[in-house]
Design goal:
The chain has one domain. The chain has 5 helices and no strands. The longest helix is centred in the first third of the chain and has 27 residues. The chain is about 85% helix and about 0% strand. Helix 1 crosses helix 4, helix 2 packs antiparallel against helix 3 and helix 2 packs parallel to helix 5.
Length: about 120
């Protein structure tokens, strides 16, 4: 799992770097942790649904704020530029670049879909 998340960070940072962003490493960590937060929010909503907790905007806003704070703190505190340079050396001559890129993109999309579906299910309780 750690290798997959490192690869996702590398691909996000590479995308932002090629796009001409001034802070591609912080943006890449932000996007990575935002994706993780979507999955975490889905799991939390599923657990709330399983215990029979009623839907509340306050609970959902609390989960979203927690995930945003988690995202912000970790994206700023981690040594992202050094990590990117190590990963750039590691993945310099990788195979199946387009296929892996689609996989990383689907990781984000699937997280968003899971979160939306978990909200829709949680609201039906």
């Amino acid at each position: 799992m750690k290798t997959f998340l490192n690869y996702c960070f590398y691909r996000y940072a590479k995308f932002y770097k090629e796009w001409g962003d001034n802070g591609p490493y912080i943006m890449a960590f932000g996007l990575l942790f935002l994706t993780i937060a979507l999955y975490l929010g889905s799991i939390i909503n599923f657990l709330f649904y399983q215990i029979g907790m009623e839907y509340s905007d306050k609970v959902n806003i609390g989960v979203a704020v927690f995930c945003c704070v988690f995202d912000f703190v970790f994206s700023i505190l981690l040594d992202s530029e050094g990590r990117y340079k190590k990963l750039e050396k590691k993945y310099k001559n990788e195979n199946n670049v387009k296929l892996k890129g689609w996989g990383v993109g689907l990781f984000i999309v699937f997280g968003l879909i899971c979160y939306i579906v978990s909200l829709m299910v949680f609201k039906t309780v």
